[in-house]
């Protein structure tokens, strides 16, 4: 078969070529235009023809190569399957495959819920530094120099400086009172640090939400009404609270707040130690000395303050038996919690 006859045969083959899959298109490309393809072999043979034949034959070969490339492009555009075993076309209406989006940490869920409740009754959110000086963390809050909370057993001090990791977010309240005038109604959520042994019931780092209300004529009755509203909003309308006398350097009078146990409905269980009540926070009327230390006249203004541990509240809501689980970042544990799982 002459070279011209081979060109004519390939022209016919290119015109009749078909392909339904990407693999078949690739086989056509290799067979015609690949390094050892039929068209490539013709160009190699073209080098041996006489000068008289090269003009006409060369033009024909170029037309063949162009036709093969155009047919290859048409086959690529018309290929609808991705392999020889595929028998379905692409379904554009099918839902896309997406990665898991994760979920909020249970502490974040509970903290935001607390913030939302107080936000609905006019409380702003205040933030402050986690490394504090003695004045804001202790002195302005009426902690005497020999108070046990200043001892190394309770506080992480920064070596060489009059600084410490804050032991409560009450330091934020001091900054708010120093830099603003009553009426003041604010909460201060954040991390706090205490030099305690880590166990199922305690940790050296945890979260608090503390609240402060200072204005003219603020009473203990206002405090109790606010906390009763909070507990019912968070745990449901059937819970009740009680207040027991206590002591804090920065409030007078002071109280511990107990809530009726939501697990046993007050009948007694291991969570409430058979008492029917669980402790949820401390509170009290702001000590006049604290108001004075912060530049507020206690003869004109009064106020109340309260503080709670977020882990403690989360434990009551989610029934988590060990506080250390919040910090282990075990995905199997964290995947159980979403805003939708929040319950009374």
Find the CATH topology of the largest domain.
BirA Bifunctional Protein, domain 2
Radius of gyration: 39 Å
Q: Please give the CATH class of the largest domain.
A: Alpha Beta
Write down the secondary-structure element order. HHHHHEEHEEHEEHEEEHEHH
Distance between the termini: 90 Å
- Main beta sheet: strand number and arrangement? 7 strands, mixed
SS-derived structural category: alpha+beta
Tell me the number of structural domains. 2
Strand line-up in the sheet with most strands:
1-5-6-10-9-8-7
- Sheet-strand content, in percent, reads 15-25%
Mean pLDDT: 86
The fourth-level CATH homologous superfamily of the largest domain is: Bira Bifunctional Protein, Domain 2
Question: What is the number of beta strands?
Answer: 10
Given as residue ranges, the uncertain stretches (5+ residues, pLDDT < 50) are: 82-87
- Helical coverage, percent range: 25-40%
The name of the CATH architecture of the largest domain is 2-Layer Sandwich
Q: What is the molecular shape?
A: elongated
Counted by DSSP, the helix tally is 11
List the helices and strands and how they pair.
Elements: H1 3-16, H2 22-33, H3 38-46, H4 51-78, H5 106-119, E1 124-125, E2 131-133, H6 134-137, E3 157-158, E4 163-165, H7 170-179, E5 184-193, E6 205-215, H8 220-235, E7 241-248, E8 251-260, E9 277-286, H9 288-293, E10 302-309, H10 310-318, H11 331-334
If you had to describe this structure to a student in words, what would you say it looks like?
This protein has 344 residues and is of the alpha+beta class. It has 2 domains: 3-78; 106-341, BirA Bifunctional Protein, domain 2 (2-Layer Sandwich). Helix content is 37%, strand content 19%. It contains 11 helices and 10 strands. The chain has helices spanning 3-16, 22-33, 38-46, 51-78, 106-119, 134-137, 170-179, 220-235, 288-293, 310-318, 331-334; strands spanning 124-125, 131-133, 157-158, 163-165, 184-193, 205-215, 241-248, 251-260, 277-286, 302-309. The strands form 2 sheets. It has a 7-stranded mixed β-sheet, with helices on both faces. The chain has a 3-stranded antiparallel β-sheet with strand order 2-4-3. Strand 3 and strand 4 form a beta hairpin. The longest helix has 28 residues, at 51-78. The chain starts with a helix and ends in a 10-residue tail after the last helix. The model is unreliable at 82-87 (pLDDT under 50).
């Amino acid at each position: 078969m002459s070279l011209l006859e081979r060109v004519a045969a390939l022209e016919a083959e290119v015109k009749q070529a078909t392909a339904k899959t990407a693999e078949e298109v690739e086989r056509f490309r290799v067979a015609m235009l690949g390094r050892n393809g039929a068209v490539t072999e013709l160009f190699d043979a073209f080098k041996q023809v006489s000068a008289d034949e090269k003009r006409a034959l060369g033009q024909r070969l170029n037309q063949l190569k162009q036709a093969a490339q155009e047919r290859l492009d048409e086959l690529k555009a018309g290929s609808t399957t991705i392999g020889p075993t595929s028998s379905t076309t692409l379904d554009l209406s099918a839902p896309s495959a997406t990665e898991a989006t994760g979920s909020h940490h249970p502490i974040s869920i509970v903290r935001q819920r607390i913030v939302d409740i107080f936000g609905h009754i006019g409380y702003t959110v205040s933030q402050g530094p986690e490394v504090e000086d003695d004045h804001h963390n202790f002195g302005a809050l009426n902690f005497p120099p020999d108070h046990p909370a200043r001892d190394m057993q309770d506080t992480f001090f920064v070596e060489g400086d009059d600084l410490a990791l804050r032991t409560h977010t009450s330091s934020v309240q001091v900054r708010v009172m120093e830099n603003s005038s009553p009426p003041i109604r604010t909460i201060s959520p954040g991390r706090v640090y205490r030099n305690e042994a880590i166990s199922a019931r305690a940790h050296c780092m945890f979260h608090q939400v503390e609240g402060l209300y200072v204005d003219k004529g603020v009473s203990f009755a206002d405090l109790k009404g606010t906390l009763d509203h909070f507990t019912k909003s968070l745990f449901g309308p059937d819970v009740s609270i009680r207040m027991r006398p206590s002591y804090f350097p920065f409030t007078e009078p002071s109280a511990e707040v107990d809530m009726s146990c939501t697990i046993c409905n007050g009948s007694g269980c291991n969570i409430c130690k058979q008492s029917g009540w669980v402790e949820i926070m401390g509170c009290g009327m702001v000590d006049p000395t604290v108001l004075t230390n912060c530049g507020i006249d206690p003869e004109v203004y009064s106020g109340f303050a309260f503080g709670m541990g977020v882990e403690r509240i989360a434990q009551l809501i989610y029934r988590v038996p060990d506080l250390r689980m919040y910090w282990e970042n075990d995905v199997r544990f964290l995947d159980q919690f979403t805003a939708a799982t929040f319950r009374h």
